[in-house]
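Observation: inputs received (chain + FE2/S2 (inorganic) cluster).
Thought: call the complex predictor directly.
Action: predict_structure
Action Input:
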Amino acid sequence: MSEENSLYNPIVMDHFLNPRNMGDLDDADGIGEVGAAACGDIMKISLKIDDNGRISDAKFKTFGCGSAIASSSMATELVKGKTIEEALQLSNKNVVDALGGLPPVKIHCSVLAEEAIKAALDDYLKRHPEMASRVAAAEAAKEKKA
Ligand code: FES
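Observation:
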């Protein structure tokens, strides 16, 4: 193992070495693919979303560093079972916290995971305008309350 690996805690190493939800969903309802300008790494997230707007499955394919793989593994775990509204709130900080922290130079890898999840949700909402209206109405109601 390289010296760099000593920077990573056991949770990150576990998600890097035994990634959860790796692969594609043939019948995905939303797909997001993003790239990091800084390093050229690429992350693709596929989501299966049921009629109630809940994420029933999530998979990823990441061409990138260990932190990007660990971040996409954790991000797919975090959004599974969530509603679209809840998943839209997922931040890279949530991913970093769930991983028990990342070295500062690797934070952008977790940003890629947040962006890929959001891109997949956007793709789904573009394909399902009726759900997009529902999400927008729920957001507006929440803002009114706040
Ligand atoms: S180094 Fe760029 S995604 Fe990790």
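Thought: report the result.
Final Answer: The longest strand covers residues 55-63. The domain at 3-145 is CATH 3.90.1010.10 (Sufe protein. Chain: A).
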